[in-house]
Amino acid sequence: MTDSTPTAGPSRRAVLVGAAAVAALAGTRSLLPGGAAHAAGTTPAPPFATVRSQWLATLIGDVDLADPVVARYVTDLAAAAKPLWDSLDTGAGRTFLWADLDSSSTSALQTTAIGRIRTLALALKTPGSALTGDTALAADLVSALDWFLAHKYGGGVGRYDNWWDFQIGIPLALNDVCLLLHDQLTATQVGTAMTAIRKYAPDPRVTAEMTSTGANRNWACSIAIIRGALSEDAAVIADAKNAYVPVFDYTTSGDGFYPDGGFVQHEYYAYTGSYGFSLLQYLTYSMLAVRGTEWAFTASRLQRVVDWVEENFRPWIHAGAFMDMTRGRALSRFYQTDHRLGHLTVATLVQLADVLPAADGTALRSVCKGWIAADTTQPYFDHDDIPIEQVRIPSVVRGRALVADESVQTGSESTRSVVATSMARAVHRRSGFALGIAMDSTTIKPYETANDENLQGWYTGEGATYLYLPDKPGHWANQYWPTADKYRIPGTTVQVKPLALGAGRGSTNTWTGGVVQDDVSAVGMGLSFGKQTLRARKSWFGFGDVVLHLGAGITSSDGVHVETIVEQRNTGPDGQTVPVVDGRATLTTTSSTATTLTPRWVHVPGTGGYVFPAGTSVRALREDRTGRWTDMDHRGTYEDDTAYTRRFVTFWLDHGVDPTNASYSWLQLPGATQAQVSAAAVSDDVAVLANTASLQAARQASTGVTALNAWASGTAAIGGVRIDRTGCVVVRRDDDGMAVSVSDPTGKLTGTVTVTIDGSAGTVLETDPGVSVTTGSQSTVVRVDVTGSAGRTATARFAPA
Question: EC number(s) of the enzyme (predicted)?
């Protein structure tokens, strides 16, 4: 089963619908005439009209043309819509609506066609647009809709190509069109449209003859709610509300939200920043549409969504950018950058705040205001790189009001680190940066290539690190993916050999996860495959503002070089960034030939620094790279085939051909100054205690933290800490007492994992469920029942001894 992002014509600036309709900005507080807001003593609108009006308020609303930002959006919407009207075939004998969409075999083009009608309807109905109220446009749109329903959707047209377009993409846009043109359509015309939707998507519980899950079910439920409102059929709305029930349940396998902060779609992929977002977006629209009616969502459902925002969304957004490592194949779409998806999320959350209890709504607005302020890479109100057709103008109005509202505090960036074993993702967060780690296992695949997208995503989820800084002009969003060397994604250990587009190597790894304790994170991933011999153990220990990278047991016998990538930083077009190595500027010119260095430390201005053990041989390259989005996206519709060039600074370690038990170690200081990096190079604050295929461990003296990843069962002891089985441990001992955190990254162990710490501990202050403690004068023993733990961290805390 696959689904697709709706597509449009071949021009880069052509109108995107589908992805535009499925992931567009939304929101306004005011209701349109006929909505649920009424003066005292008047008769409330019928519930169907209320639902229609409240959904319509997410599409159009009050527009203050005195605000130059809002006025620019309205003007640009009309300017984008006018060429669509000009190119619309209105002839009586037409065989298509737009010549570039003349197809009866590619379903995505039909999603695009109805999406273009939707864009024109938005321009027709948005107050202040140059096309507002144009009677000729209204007539042409009604005629186009009639033709579409007679020839492309409904009637005798059978479903073909991708089911997603017929059951989700087209109905989402078609519902919006019927709401926007409601005053121009007869009851018969609306009924024809609803009959067509019912034909292809009669039951939100089922998509493509399969049980719908996650975002797909959510879309289907939203479609049914509006279909019921337009058909004035209460049973359809009630059925949709019932079908929503599984969406709210946390899951332990397959698609949906997980209690550890993960979201999975298509069973094997981390997808919070794509399908997860779309689920949140259309669930928010549904909640807004039915509020104040008999179909309103209960308080417990609202609370669950609040929990999702804090636990499943906020960890993966930094400075307004939704981390690429959570966006699946969407990272290969030129029109959906991390910041673009961050903007969409903010717009959705500001709307969601209106449905929530007052305190929750205020807190959420504060977080959103913080993200708007923090995004200097692609400012929230700037759509220069985003087609205006994808922007819902009410969200601009809403955002402007939020920024101007002095009663709402500007929220600060989250500093809470998270390990989401469910989707094999982790993030170590501090006030100035977020370092994401994308991993794979036998249950979470490294990347998805459905619909000929993301064909070069080979290493994007195999121990890849994603550093997010509040930078400008940006890194990931600044044409990184078309121009970067996809064989040298930071953090990865790879064989140096060409791979076929969309190739997989069949991960056999069963050890992926870690522990978070306050500002310390310990994360590990095994590297093993069914289709190549490369094996490795990889660990990341985040000690506050520094992250220690360890690799061990790096072994291969396929006759090729093996590399570990330290960094591949995008410095922009003609980037002037010059690395400083041991105090000297180096790589001052660009070259296609790598240089070999033996640095003690390296500082990359605007990025941070790296500290290596003495004698480490590092390969370095400062080069200009050129590539196209179409190199990795072969859908052939709505594409950007522009050749972009960006300058990169890349460092990697060459382990040679067929290494045996090779290893690596370096310290990363994200966002650090040159002085901070040079000071770290002569400090012994962070010490590597072990770096082997069976045990990786480190200690930070200043904080009294010891962290270890034990890769095999058997008593492993280091730094005064002993674990009897495979697992991950963080022990902190300081003036405030002691804390011991443990997890089973395999998620498969049963029974107890026992950790023994040398020395006595004070009184037990608190323990998580499943944790028992034995204290003595010589040692402290912490036992954790990991049965069914799904990789969760369990902690015991002690008073000072």
Answer: 4.2.2.1
